[in-house]
Amino acid sequence: TVFDGKCGGLVIQLREVRFHYAIEGVSSKEWVLSGLNLSIPSGEYVAVMGPNGSGKSTMARMLNGLLVPTGGQVLIDGLDTRNDEALWEIRQRVGMVFQNPDNQIVATTVRDDIAFGLENRGMPREEMIPRIEEVIAEVGLDGLEETPPHHLSGGQKQRLAIAGVIAMRPRVVVFDEATSMLDPTGRGEVLEAIRRLHEGGTTIVHITHSADEALEAERIMIMAGGRLQLEGTPAEVFSRAEALSRWSLDVPFHVKLREGLIRRGMPLSEKTANTEELVEELW
Ligand code: ADP
Q: Which residues form the ABC transporter domain (predicted)?
């Protein structure tokens, strides 16, 4: 039977996950994920960082069964992604937002684009119409219902992609470098949409190269070499300067500024959690 585990509120569990790609039908010997263990409780906001090629996108594609593990287990609410019968349910529960907003848009107006996914799921029209209005408001695209998506800014397009995903009311939304092609305004808009989703109780997995974006999360996971290397609160993770530089990872602006000031003889405390705290201390 498919187990709908409310197991301590855990939504995502990866147990000893191993994975390698098959290239032209020949399976590669190289493990992209080499014994990855992680759990994410329901409602948590997690950021995932790691060098290029560390397996972040591969891990993301495991979470809704786009890829299935070669070894080990991926469980979503206790549902195993290798169980074909559970796959449809898993895809309802886990939404994905990718890097390039242009690749995620299918219709000729904002409203039709959101409707497309719902129609595919067979949602009745009387349910669909109010649902579309709700998600348009949630991502702040009110007034743009009839706009052709190619007239939207990058940030608006990515918010449209988010609307299409959250229209299915998933429990988890995975953002795979969903801000990396956007300008600062667009990034800010998408981060705000993510924040609101989290406040509404959705579990967030946000893959990003930006330390300042990762600061928004409750927990940061660092992946390297196909494994989880380090995890903790943003304050914990960003106090590990040596580890972060080993993996060539970005550190938040306030950390760089604090270090620069200390080098110039400013007597500052060891840790500040964000730019605001640093400014407080300097004041
Ligand atoms: P990240 O998201 O951390 O940059 P990826 O999961 O994209 O890492 O990639 C991990 C490794 O898997 C890389 O070495 C990459 O070249 C390889 N890889 C990714 N996608 C494919 C694919 N479709 N076929 C073969 N190898 C792939």
A: 12-250
